[in-house]
Amino acid sequence: MLSDSGVSEAVSSGAGVMVPRLCEGLELLGEYQGSGSVVRKFLLRRGDGQVIQVSRLLYLVAGSVDGVRDAEAISHRVSGRYGQEVSAEDVLFLVERKLTPMGVTLPPGGDGRGSAPRSDLLLALKGHRVVFGERWVARIAGVLGWLHSPLVVSLVLVAAVVMDGWLFGVHGGITAVLQVLEQPLWMLILFGLTVASLVFHEFGHASACHYSGAVPGKIGCGIFLIWPSMYTDVTDVYRVGRAGRLRTGLGGVYFNVIFMLVLTGLYLVTGQPLFLAAVYLAHFEVLEQLMPLVRLDGYYILGDLAGVPDLYGKVKPILMGLLPGRRREAAAMLGLKRSARIVVTVWVAVMVPLLLAEVGYVLWNLPRLVATAGRALAAQVSGTLEAFAGLQVWAGLVGVIGTLMLLCPMAGGCYLAGRIVVRVWRAGLRVTEGQPVMRLAVVGAVVAVGAVLGVAWVRGLTPKPLPAAAPVTPVLQPGVPAPHPAPTTSTAGPSPAPSHPARRPAVPPSGRPATVTPPAASSAAPASSSPATVSRTPSASPTRTHPTPDPSGSSPTPSATGTPPTGSPSPSPSPSASTSPTRSPSPSGTSPSVPGPPGSGGT
């Protein structure tokens, strides 16, 4: 029996005739199947989409509120289902002190919508925008549902193993990416394929939800941490069993695998490397989604395995249990079964140190990050504007993509840092409220850490910014200069001075330059006239060595009489020099024409 003096007085004065009303759009989803909690949990979904876990008693009270029954009638109905007497005073207490603050029932005189605040999760999606409405999602999910049948799933997994074995063990995964990075148009197509993969990923969740017997909601987009992201509303899946929730959580990466198989088939048909490049990048998308540290697919999959829908909500009780004398209190706050408690404890033990280490690393390297980001953004914007000014439209458009790729983490990082500072500030005020000694100690610790970091930043004790490097993907960075490697030299030894003017070698029909034998003076040449080996120094920069027009790919060397000895004055420039000139790729990513030596007029 519940009691509260204020509520009891209200009932005795006639408040018992008050008729509670539910907020508009409230849904009762039923019991949370496969819960890791010791007691049974039930789910409610408000009209704004927020899902709430409640006890069985609160769920029965909410289910008995229909806008017609008063507190007395509700108490009789709930008592019969709960198996224990619940009075009208108890009903009013639960409605006014529990359900109304959660936005389940309306306050007296309410207009139909609750005013309960939504949970403002730090590591959650922000700025939701609907892309596909519920009706379209339901139709498409129904069409794609057959892909989740056990036979199809088995065939897809076997095909994925074969695909990865061929891609990484035979063909080479990075080869196609390197080929695509040189073509601006291919980069744009690759970007489009990546977006298509994201959309298909979300329909994997929706179709798995439909196949499991739940009703998928809308598909939209928003900002997750610092990157644009997409989401699918599958909260209805909580009313089905654990197997259905796991199928829904894995449905996204499963559809990524299907998408990769389709792209691999397109490559085998067309031979275009951009399809394999998209397959290679899709592997990283899958790995990112499976990480359980933030609220991506891996987080929800782990939560479904443990039967705990909000893992971050259990961090505080787990950490409290580490304090002396607080173990029982922490266990009561957790309220989890032993298996679920082990899973959550291991997750907290791994996640908390990683997040703290990441924050410390970022603070220590903050000057380096700011300087590098500013320099990169300035060079990127300048190069993109130069590309448009030079009427290189494709290079400019790809440069815009590169600029956005730089701006997104910068703007998102500033936003996330601001939110973390505000959250820490509010948490500090809340924890130290009424405890001036603790508040003073916390302020002293923060000042000490700030002083250490400030001294390290000002005196340059933190790592210095790296020097400007050549762009790894020059297509995304038009106009950004790449350093030229030192010219390569031939390994052949010096030869006697020629006794005749240099001539351009005749080219036979095969396209291989023929060796020109000079007049009688050639008898003074060394006996060996085999071609000299040309050394090619590999470079991490995007500069390429352009050989002379030889189908075999090697640079033939003229006869020994065609090269002057070291230290002797050079005659007229030889058109068949043994070393090949190096050129940087043009801003559009295509190889420029290879000019001949100065004065030769060759192209």
Question: Characteristics of this structure?
Answer:
603 residues, mainly alpha, 3-stranded antiparallel beta sheet, 49% helix, disordered N terminus, disordered C terminus
Q: Sheet bearing the most strands, described?
A: 3 strands, antiparallel
Number of helices: 17
Roughly what is the average pLDDT, rounded to an integer? Answer: 74
Q: Looking across the biggest beta sheet, what order are the strands in? A: 1-2-3
Which percent range fits the helix content? 40-55%
Walk me through the structure.
- This protein has 603 residues and is mainly α.
- 49% of the residues lie in helices and 6% in strands.
- The protein is built from 17 helices and 8 strands.
- The strands form 3 sheets. Strands 1-2-3 form a 3-stranded antiparallel beta sheet. The chain has a 3-stranded antiparallel beta sheet with strand order 4-5-6.
- Helix 9 (242-270) runs antiparallel to helix 10.
- The chain is globular.
- The termini are far apart.
- 28% of the residues are buried.
Strand and helix map with partners:
Blueprint: H1 5-12, E1 27-31, E2 42-45, E3 51-54, H2 56-64, H3 71-82, H4 88-99, E4 125-132, H5 134-144, H6 150-171, H7 173-180, H8 184-211, E5 219-224, E6 227-232, H9 242-270, H10 273-289, H11 297-306, H12 315-320, H13 327-334, H14 338-364, H15 366-389, H16 393-431, H17 436-458, E7 544-545, E8 582-583
Helix pairs in contact: 2-3, 3-4, 5-8, 6-9, 7-10, 8-9, 8-10, 8-16, 9-10, 9-11, 15-16
